[in-house]
Design brief:
It contains twelve helices and 24 strands. The protein is an alpha+beta fold. A hairpin with a 2-residue loop joins strand 16 and strand 17. The longest helix is centred in the middle third of the chain and has 21 residues. The protein binds adenosine monophosphate and glycine.
């Protein structure tokens, strides 16, 4: 079969590689991909937002399956367009993608169906927001309602930070902003394959590192590194998360008529009251996809078909720990410059690439998060040591990385 992957980052590089390994797949296309994928997929020069051209290409090429990586095209309705044209698409329709696209939508659904999450209030008026913070005090979590590439969330430990966030988010007197109770605990990322009222939750979870700097300091990012499995979060806790969050939310989405088909990313936190939802995403996590797909043994196409046919499937995993360290451009998640020469990459499969391009025969940086080094081992310690060795192998004067990816699993 012919598969088309939509997206250009590290998650899509991981998807392209995993899908390409399926015995069922003859050819993988990617729109628009990045040059590091050139040996693993046919890169198609169509813009990700050009839905007309994507539908036309998929129709002309008789693509059997489209897998949409990022959230933006899902929210913009690419899945609806492809499905209407008779092309099977793994990735939710635009209303279902509101689970990620609107924090207010997701919070309201959780409130309606009693799914455990932080208390919240959506406030549309700046003056009310200021008063709310003065009344409730800090810590408080402030989330912009729309998409913000992981940068629309401020965890304010003091009032000054909260007021800065309010000034940032309410560019006018009115904006939709969610104010949330601050939850304390360890976070983990659980991917769930969903088809309407049926789901297959991954039984291996991953742990991301959202803050930019060591020790969980600095601003939130899209994710600076991840590892799996997360052995110190017990199977019982995952089972509890499935019973209290995953199955109820899948039924809730079904009752609301969302007709979800794709991956639902459950960002959860282990509190003293049990697991609670921090966020949902309508897609695979990045960098969670890079570590999980490296460990997953099950054919990804067979997994999609199982969930499509509502057939339970036991996932098979390699008996290894995977640790992924992200190399990002200096300045990320703020402004950064591109075009720094990167030496040591050379298409090695221990790296998955988010944003590199070739210029005069050399690889140069071309985005915020640039690449991830994937170390593996029989223990997290070994996987971590191997990933940092791979990081050291890369030479570039324009990138930084966290030095503590995986440490939470070592204590
Ligand atoms: P989100 O984009 O909603 O996942 O938020 C980004 C990060 O902010 C999360 O991974 C958490 O580290 C932090 N965060 C979000 N919501 C809360 C909350 N209610 N309590 C504590 N931390 C939070
Ligand atoms: N790594 C977090 C996310 O994909 O949203």
């Amino acid at each position: 079969m012919k598969v088309l992957v939509i997206g250009s980052g590290g998650r899509e590089h991981a998807l392209v590689r995993k899908i390409g390994k399926s015995s069922r797949v003859e050819e993988v296309f990617v729109i628009r991909g990045n040059e590091a994928m050139a040996r693993e997929a046919t890169i198609v020069d169509i813009a990700e937002h050009d839905h007309d051209a994507i539908v036309q290409f998929a129709t002309e090429q008789a693509i059997d399956l489209v897998v949409v990586g990022p959230e933006q095209p899902l929210i913009d309705g690419l899945s609806d367009r492809l499905t209407a044209a008779g092309i099977k698409t793994f990735g939710p329709n635009s209303s279902a993608a509101q689970m990620e696209g609107s924090k207010d939508f997701a919070k309201a659904l959780m409130a309606k169906y009693n799914i455990p999450t932080a208390q919240y209030e959506t406030i549309e008026n700046k003056a009310d927001a200021i008063q709310y913070v003065k009344q409730h005090g800090t810590p408080i979590v402030i989330k912009y309602d729309g998409l913000a590439a992981g940068k629309g969330v401020v965890v304010a430990m003091d009032e000054a930070t909260a007021m800065d966030a309010i000034n940032d988010f309410y560019t006018e007197e009115h904006a939709k902003v969610v104010f949330e109770e601050y939850l304390e605990g360890e976070e983990f990322s659980l991917m769930v394959m969903v088809n309407d009222d049926f789901c297959i939750p991954f039984d291996t979870i991953a742990q991301d590192h959202k803050r930019a700097y060591d020790g969980d300091k600095g601003p939130n990012t899209g994710g600076m590194g991840a590892y799996c499995p997360v052995s110190h979060i017990s199977d019982d806790m995952i089972e509890r998360t499935n019973q209290e969050i995953v199955y109820p939310v899948v039924q809730a989405m079904h009752k609301e008529g969302l007709n979800y088909f794709g991956i639902l990313y459950v960002g959860a936190i282990v509190t003293i009251e049990g697991p609670k939802v921090i966020e949902f995403n309508a897609r695979f996590g990045d960098p969670e996809a890079q570590v999980l797909l490296r460990r997953l043994e099950t054919d990804f196409i067979e997994l999609i078909e199982a969930v499509e046919n509502k057939q339970p499937l036991d996932l098979m995993w390699r008996n290894k720990t995977i640790c992924g360290v992200v190399l990002a451009s200096n300045g990320y998640p703020g402004s950064y410059d591109k075009g720094h020469v990167v030496k040591g990459y050379d298409y090695q499969t221990d790296y998955i690439v988010s944003a590199l391009k070739q210029e005069d025969g050399e690889w140069v940086t071309n985005g915020g998060r640039v690449m991830i080094a994937l170390g593996e081992g029989d223990s997290l310690q070994e996987a971590q040591a191997n990933s940092y060795q791979l990081v050291e192998h890369i030479q570039c004067d324009g990138m930084f990385y966290r030095k503590d990816i995986g440490n939470k699993g070592l204590v």
